[in-house]
Amino acid sequence: MAADVKGGLAARLIATVLIFAGLEGLIFHSGLYARIIEPDSTTGFMELQIQNEIRRPKPNRNQVLAVGHSRMALLPRIANEMQPGTGYTFATIGLGGTTPRTWFYALRAVDPHAHNYAAILIPEDDYNEPDMWEDQSDRESDLHYVIARLRLRDLREFPWTYKSADRKWAAFEGIVLKGTVYKQDFQEFLDHPLARIAKAQYYRHDSAGWYYGFGGDARTLAGLEIDWAHKTARFPPSVPEAEQKRIAGNCSRTNHPIEGMRRRIGCIGIAGLSIITAAPGPGFSSCACRGLRFHRRRFLRNSIAQCANLLDGRTWSCWMSICSIRWSARSSFGTPCT
Amino acid sequence: MLFQTPQFFVFLGVVLILFYSTPRKWRKFILLAASYYFYMSWIPVFILLLLSLTAIDYGAARWIAHTDAPRLRKTALVVSLSANLGLLGFFKYYNFFAEGIAQLLQWAHLLGLPSNAFALSIILPLGISFHTFQSMSYVIDVYRKQQEPIRNPIDYALFISFFPQLVAGPIVRAREFFGDLYGWRKPSTAEASQGILLLLLGLAKKTIMADQFAQIANAYFQDPAKHPGILSAWSGTIAFGIQIYFDFSGYTDMAIGMAKLLGFHFPINFRRPYLASSITDFWHRWHISLSRWLRDYLYIPLGGNRGGRLETYRNLMLTMLLGGLWHGASWNFVVWGGYHGALLSVERTFRGRTIEDRRTESDGWALLYPVKAVVTFALVMAGWVFFRTATFHQSLYVLGQMLTGSKGEMLIPAWMVSLALITLVLAVIEEKKACFETIAVGPAWAYGAVCALLLLSVELVGFTGPAVPFVYFQF
Question: Beta strand A63-68 with A119-121: parallel, antiparallel or unpaired?
Answer without folding.
Answer: parallel
